[in-house]
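Weekly puzzle thread! Below is a chain. First person to post its structure in token form gets bragging rights.
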Amino acid sequence: MGQFAFVLHPVSMRDFHRKFPVLRRVPDRWVEDGFGMVGPWVGAHITGIASPTGATAEGWFIFLPWTPRLLLERPWPVTLRRLEQAGRLAEGRGARILGLGAYTKIAGDRGVSLRDRLSIPVTTGNSFTAATAIEGTRIAAARMGVPLPSAAVAIVGATGAIGAACARILGPETGSLTLVARQIEPLEGLAEELRAARATVQVRTDVRAAVAAADVVLCVSSATEEILEASDFRPGAVVCDVARPRNVSAALAGTRPDVLVIDGGIVSVPGDRMDFGMDFGLPPRMAEACIAETIILALEGRWESFTLGRDIRAEQVREIALLGRKHGLHVVGLRRFERALPGEEIDAIRDRAARARSGRSA
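Winning reply:
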């Protein structure tokens, strides 16, 4: 049986309230700063994971009660010590690989220093997150009648690990690709790499201008709050929001019925008796792709640091996607703001978009 552990942390105050309902009565900043003095603990035992190949796995969630703000603002040596404590808890449980979730993989050097301090490998999950974001985007674009070979695609947060990986794969198969981030120099470097692969690429630092011209948008920015509003998108746009916290305002669901927004990086986990041992806001047997990468490696018996640092090769993304399908972890249907998205609802969005575009051209 493959044994693994995964480090979780709250990405919003809602996560604290789900775990500790009584904290709804306490000012958010008090909760955040109070838990900033608390170290990690073993939060849940994950059982019943069973691959179609016959391989099985179990794991543990290690909970570090630090918000994105704390993880990004605390001095890196302090954060690294907390992550090392989490790793020691994983080792003590017998885990043979440790996965990093959300901002624990963004802080510092994306797991490299932590791996050097532990006796077990570390993976960020970014390769499988990129794979599922691309898969979900392809499915959604097809359902909306948006052909990727002629589509204008924008990637928000393109110079991050996931964004750059998505750009390397999607760039050559799209009509045009706009890379969006805050700093121009890293964007230009990535653009030159993609142009050498015969992609049509431009770079922008103005996120709203880039999105307004796009047929397809992938949101993978590490911003700690929403950066895109309902009015930013053109009718019929397909938007895959991988970021947690979200890059796209949840208000879009009620105000833009002509735009398809999907949750990126959500996959099924195999096993009729699979149990995560805790509620983190998804239906049973569903997980974020970063968690799923760690599970895949445990089922495969690949005790290695599969994804570390900022650079992710396209070959890594394709390999982990194949391993995910082998073990039954892949995108199943589309979700929109944490709920299943029926086909008829997608059809209605496509029809409204067509009418909106027709009205504009008239």
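Puzzle host: Confirmed. Bonus trivia for everyone else. The chain has two domains: 2-127+269-327, 130-265+334-361.
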